[in-house]
Write a structure and sequence with these properties.
Strand content: 5-15%
Structural class: alpha/beta
Distance between the termini: 142 Å
Radius of gyration: 35 Å
Order of helices and strands: HHEEHEHEEEHHHHHHHEHEHEE
Number of helices: 13
Number of strands: 10
Shape: globular
Length: about 400
């Protein structure tokens, strides 16, 4: 057969076959679609490291905040004292704040190595450039959760120059007050304590409480006296409190409570009653007299040392009569039982206290010089409802100065 008459099989010699073309077209279509699609999202960032909400972790976190705010100031050596931490709600020292204080003293040299801590005594208080104080505050409605606040103030400028805040979660923190505060006959949250608490809440760059800063040397003296009392060194506590009582800025409820308690421990009942008279006079003069009179459950009968309570009321009656003041006696209860039942019970207790005052000083019974009110649990300070020493402040009786009109 000649070349001209040869036939070529279908598909041969004409380029790629139909199937190959289809495959190539599908591949090109897929590439086109892929080119129009959005790129896959990047992987999520790793989660932040967990916040260490232990007491020690919170202290380190608060001090790191302080260091960041200090900036270049943190590289210059400074001297500082730590005024022992307080419970943010009651203004007392507790076992929890003592533990926090120990952890703070241990952490400052590690986190802020240029701060040289001095002892919190009179010498240290007078020499220090900076002052550290802080609070441990239970969070309302969230049992076992707290807020730690640490404030750093420059004593020269009078300003709060750094402040750290950190959360704590610990159901085991012991809120029982230290011995000094547990055995104090009256609430000691006076002007000096209020200045301490307000300083911890001041924003950075704002003035610390001026009176609080001015009284730091005497506060250190009182701190030493409280420590002596907590460790049953009654004579030393009495000596230090007596020194504080000779100073103008030592006229504080802490001072007179300390004098009262140390004298009672030493069997000096006449001196103790004199000291309580000063508690009553100062408390009424500042309308800040709240005494921890405890009653038997659901009654107006005293629980504990009734003659001691009688002595307290005798001194309150004398102070009120001598000053021609009019008083509102306010009963309070802890947060147990029913709301209405506690309101009625607190009023009955306030009325019983009025009757005792009038027996001691009949002039108080004239007109409306002494009125009564029952708050129930509306104004609890601690609010735990444990009905023991931890919430004794909630079962207080207050004597408020009111207008005689």
């Amino acid at each position: 057969m000649s070349e001209r008459t040869k036939t070529t099989p279908r598909g041969r010699g004409r380029g790629p076959g139909l199937d190959a073309l289809r495959r190539r077209g599908l591949l090109l279509l897929a590439l086109a679609i892929a080119g129009c699609a959005k790129p896959p999202p990047p992987p999520p960032p790793p989660p932040p490291p967990p916040v260490d909400e232990t007491l020690e972790g919170a202290i380190n976190g608060a001090l790191l905040d302080v260091g960041r705010q200090l900036g270049a100031q943190a590289t210059v050596e400074r001297s500082a004292v730590i005024d022992p931490l307080l419970d943010g709600r009651s203004g007392q020292q507790t076992r929890a704040t003592e533990r926090a204080m120990q952890a703070l003293v241990a952490s400052v040299p590690k986190v802020l190595p240029r701060i040289r801590l001095l002892p919190f005594d009179e010498a240290g208080a007078r020499q220090s450039t900076w002052l550290i104080n802080g609070t441990l505050t239970a969070q309302e409605g969230r049992p076992g959760t707290y807020r730690l606040t640490v404030a750093l103030s420059d004593r020269g400028s009078g300003l709060v120059i750094a402040r750290g805040v950190a959360p704590i979660t610990d159901a085991q923190l012991d809120l029982a007050p230290t011995r000094f505060y547990a055995e104090s006959p009256s609430l000691v949250r006076d002007r000096a304590i209020q200045g301490y608490l307000e300083t911890t809440e001041k924003p950075v760059g704002q003035p610390a409480d001026a009176l609080y800063l001015e009284q730091i040397p005497t506060a250190a003296l009182l701190g030493q006296a409280q420590d002596a009392y907590n460790h049953e060194r009654w004579d030393e506590a009495l000596k230090l409190m007596s020194v504080a009582a000779q100073r103008d800025d030592g006229q504080q409820l802490r001072t007179f409570n300390g004098l009262y308690m140390a004298n009672m421990k030493l069997g000096r009942t006449a001196e103790a009653e004199e000291a309580f008279g000063k508690i009553a006079a100062l408390g009424l003069a500042t309308s800040n007299l709240a005494v921890k009179i405890l009653f038997r459950p659901a009654t107006t009968e005293f629980m504990g040392d009734a003659p001691v309570y009688a002595m307290w009321l005798r001194q309150i009656a004398r102070a009120a009569q001598a000053s021609d003041l009019c008083l509102n006696v306010i009963g309070h209860t802890s947060k147990t039982g029913t709301e209405q039942g506690n309101r009625v019970l607190s009023l009955r207790r306030a009325q019983a206290m009025r009757e005792r005052l009038v027996r001691e000083a009949p002039a108080l019974g004239r007109g409306q010089r002494v009125r009564t009110e029952g708050k129930g649990w509306d104004e609890t300070i601690v609010g735990t409802g444990t009905d023991d020493l931890r919430d004794a402040l909630d079962r207080r009786v207050e004597f408020k100065v009111v207008s005689c009109d």
